[in-house]
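Memo to structure team: turn this sequence into structure tokens by end of day. - J.P.
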Amino acid sequence: MILVRDVFQAKYGRGGELVALFKEARQTWAAQYAGRVLTDLSGPFFTVITETEVETLDEWEKGNNAIFSLPEFGDWFSRMTPLVESGRREFYRIE
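Reply from structure team:
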């Protein structure tokens, strides 16, 4: 099992808006989108993390490609990008 973490640094004061958009995405694309949304209790302010568990990297890649090909995802993504200062993706094997 693999854990995929997308770590976003929201623009100052915009973390709540970013969380709301991720929750919207989770409801809209429940089968393909992040199972959890996390926010910071320490460290850099306005850090928002999404976590997804998949069996294989191939499964993650197929799901990622499928969601990015949806026209409505492009609309959602265009609302998300102005809220984000930076981000990164991390892959972990769950032992």
